[in-house]
Design a protein that fits this description.
- This protein is mainly β and 369 residues long.
- The protein folds into two domains: 232 residues, Alpha-Beta Complex (Sulfite Oxidase, Chain A, domain 2), CATH 3.90.420; 114 residues, Immunoglobulin-like (Sandwich), CATH 2.60.40.650.
- It has a six-stranded mixed sheet with strand order 14-15-22-21-17-18, with no helix packed on it.
- It is globular.
- The model has no long low-confidence stretch (mean pLDDT 96).
Length: 369
């Protein structure tokens, strides 16, 4: 029996999760109760209040009693392996970046045949000011060997997802040495909360959130590709089970809006009075590419929205549009375009696991005096 076979999940539910439609399953509801999305009305905040930032944790939130006892080990294909305390990492040059993070599965619940996983609709996004040191300062200290091919980042969160493993991801040396890839110890000016990776995590701006490993425990520099479960068996765009797929990397262009008017408690359907209504929202794209256009639509008729200032290379951008509402039942929507010319699609983007669905945001509204 191989090591991988010994680690295969003993739980029947892990052996197959076919795509389903219809009502959410009990397991999906349980995941939704463990994780949380931003409240769409909180899109008005330039920086998402920490308690409203989206949250997705694959396994249990580890208990870390004290940051004073935390160490980060760096080993493998390096000239000088090191074990650094948090205080030693914090003594390195610090940097704060405003970064919008989005879960790769955001929008999964809006796909007809959804994958059985966290049932995100639109809310798995948030923008924070992350403070840490550029990862390159640590990599410069250990010295990468010429044959360094891949750099793996592993946290202490551990559990079953097909097999038993610690959560881990990797970056190539070229990506890891980017000045904006950070080892982070603070979020919005305060120490990381337990659920956000206390006391140390990785932030990879412009990428979907799966790259920003939490509870970062060790870095392993390798002379071969890292083949961790979350790197090679998950976070892959696939059209079918047999499709080798394409790795999930940068965030796709997207926009959301603050639902206008008053909500119905249960359905979240909106009630708006006739007349001019200012609709506000946010738009973002990945890899540091700016959003250059947002359109606001009513029942398929589109108008250009007014864009706010760019507030950081990796942060979302505000927009607003004035809608002259007339009585009736309508559907409002928004769509963004980035500098590369990529535009949100009007229909769902199919992926077997529900990754990267960036179709337009739609809200049903009743307009009545």
């Amino acid at each position: 029996m191989t090591e991988r076979e010994r680690r295969v999940s003993p739980f029947d539910a892990e052996r197959g999760r076919p795509n389903v439609e219809g009502d959410f399953l009990r397991q999906e509801v349980r995941l939704a109760n463990r994780n949380a999305g931003i409240l769409l009305e909180a899109l008005r905040h330039d920086v998402t209040p920490t308690g409203l930032h989206y949250l997705l944790n694959h396994f249990d939130v580890p208990y870390v009693a004290s940051a004073a006892d935390w160490t980060l080990s760096v080993s493998g294909r390096v000239r000088t392996p090191l074990k650094l305390s948090l205080a030693e990492i914090q003594a390195l040059p610090a940097k704060t970046l405003r970064v919008t993070l989005e879960c790769a599965g955001n929008g999964r619940a809006n796909i007809g045949l959804r994958y059985q996983s966290m049932p995100w609709m639109y809310e798995a996004v948030g923008t924070s000011e992350w403070t840490g040191t550029p990862l390159r300062h640590v990599l410069d200290r250990v010295g990468l060997e010429p044959d360094a091919m891949d750099i793996a980042f592993l946290g202490i969160d551990r559990g079953f997802d097909k097999i038993l493993h610690e959560y881990g991801r990797s970056l190539t040396p070229q990506l890891a040495l980017n000045e904006d890839v950070l080892l982070v110890w603070a979020m919005n000016g305060a120490p990381l909360l337990p659920q956000h990776g206390f006391p140390l995590r990785l932030i990879v701006p412009g990428w979907y959130g799966m790259a920003s490993v939490k509870w970062l425990d060790r870095i392993e520099v390798r002379d071969s590709p890292y083949e961790g479960q979350q790197q090679v068996a998950s976070y892959i765009y696939k059209e079918s089970a047999d499709d080798p797929g394409v790795p999930v990397t940068h965030i796709r262009v997207k926009s959301l809006m603050v639902p206008p008017g008053l909500p119905d408690w249960y359905t979240r359907h909106r009630l708006v009075a006739p007349g001019p209504v200012t609709v506000f929202g946010r738009a973002w794209s990945g890899n540091g590419v700016p959003v250059t256009r947002v359109e606001f639509g009513v029942d398929g008729t589109w108008q250009d929205a007014e864009l706010g200032a760019i507030d950081g290379q990796y942060a979302w951008r505000s927009w607003q549009a004035v809608w002259h509402a007339t009585e009736g039942e309508v559907e409002i929507a928004c769509r963004a375009t980035d500098e590369n010319g990529d535009t949100q699609p009007l229909e769902e983007r199919w992926d077997r696991a529900g990754f990267g669905n960036n179709m337009v945001h739609r809200i049903g509204v009743t307009v009545r005096a």
